[in-house]
């Protein structure tokens, strides 16, 4: 008799231990689901902010800007049960955007789309695991989930980014004898009116090294003929997603430093421009640091003004340091 009692007690202890472990796991999965939802909310909120910024920046059709703004505001005020419908309305508004939008805002929007996609999948994975354990017969029989509500999947239409063409480019930060840097003012031919300033340079052609491409592009775009040994670097690199002439490019840019020959009136020329460049590139201008900060249009790379002192130091005392990433 005592043996049977011992067996029963042992079985009860084993069952209790199993139930305790299941209860602990259910609790952990619910916590994981709520943490994943918090991360998803942050990603969704960032997308809404990017959409509002894009609507407020100008350059969009006024009706589209109004729809985008109202959709973003609706997302920010939506309750959790209504959030998916509001997010789908915002996605539909985003799908109406033209290919050519402000490059900086476009990059932010593309990044938020990636973050939303990853956060949503992470959340739905947590929901799947939680629901699977809660469907276990022991969990249901002994009500191990307590009063916790059953988590729901979050399904929304994802913003489909236009397919980007990968491209590698070489650019030159060109200084004159007054330590001013040469920039070109350009715009997207398919969306005139939104201008920006950028450094000379362009795509690396088949069989070219980065420095060869930098020398060639500098000559074609400015008329300045330098030797490869006149360039220092690359000292910086960045990845930029840009729209140009109806296409999207994901461009890895490598930046070299160089000192221009004196008297630019003798060599500065647009003769090497292609027909498309003549259409898309306007003024060439020398900027000091203060003028970069106060430029009338966006300057790319964004950190150029902040990095100018360090670039001049490298130009005066070249080093073999590895290139650093900038934005």
From TrEMBL:
Top-level taxon of the source organism: Bacteria
UniProt entry keywords in alphabetical sequence: Hydrolase, Magnesium
Thylakoid listed as a keyword: no
Cofactor(s) recorded in Swiss-Prot or TrEMBL: Mg(2+)
Record bears the keyword Magnesium: yes
All copies of domain Nudix hydrolase, residue ranges: 165-308
Stored Pfam families: NUDIX
Residues spanning the signal sequence: none
MF annotations from Gene Ontology: hydrolase activity
Family listed: Belongs to the Nudix hydrolase family.
Alphabetized PANTHER family for the sequence: GDP-MANNOSE MANNOSYL HYDROLASE (PTHR43046:SF12)
UniProt-recorded name of the protein: NUDIX domain-containing protein
Source species of the chain: Nakamurella antarctica
């Amino acid at each position: 008799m005592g043996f049977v009692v011992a067996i029963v007690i042992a079985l009860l202890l084993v069952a209790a231990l199993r139930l305790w472990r299941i209860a602990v796991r259910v609790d952990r999965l619910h916590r994981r689901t709520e943490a994943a939802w918090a991360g998803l909310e942050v990603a969704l909120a960032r997308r809404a902010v990017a959409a509002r910024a894009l609507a407020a920046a100008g350059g969009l059709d006024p009706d589209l800007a109004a729809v985008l703004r109202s959709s973003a505001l609706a997302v920010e005020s939506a309750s959790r049960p209504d959030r998916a419908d509001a997010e789908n309305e915002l996605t539909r508004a985003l799908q109406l955007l033209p290919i050519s939008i402000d490059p900086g805002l476009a990059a932010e929007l593309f990044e938020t789309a990636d973050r939303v996609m990853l956060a949503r999948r992470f959340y739905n994975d947590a929901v799947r695991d939680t629901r699977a354990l809660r469907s276990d017969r022991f969990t249901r029989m002994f009500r191990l989930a307590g009063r916790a509500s059953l988590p729901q999947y979050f399904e929304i239409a994802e913003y489909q980014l236009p397919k980007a063409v990968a491209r590698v480019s070489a650019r030159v930060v060109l200084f004159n004898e007054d330590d001013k840097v040469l920039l070109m003012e350009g715009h997207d031919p398919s969306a005139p009116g939104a201008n920006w300033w950028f450094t000379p340079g362009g795509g690396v052609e088949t069989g070219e090294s980065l420095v060869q491409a930098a020398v060639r592009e500098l000559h074609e775009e400015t008329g300045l003929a330098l030797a490869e040994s006149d360039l220092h670097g690359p000292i910086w690199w960045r990845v930029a997603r840009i729209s140009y002439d109806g296409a999207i490019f994901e461009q890895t840019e490598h930046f070299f430093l160089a000192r221009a020959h004196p008297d630019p009136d003798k060599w500065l020329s647009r003769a090497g421009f292609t027909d498309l460049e003549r259409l898309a590139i306007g003024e060439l201008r020398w900027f000091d640091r203060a003028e970069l900060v106060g430029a009338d249009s966006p300057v790319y790379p964004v950190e150029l003004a902040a990095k100018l002192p360090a670039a001049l130091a490298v130009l005066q005392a070249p080093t073999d340091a590895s290139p650093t990433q900038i934005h």
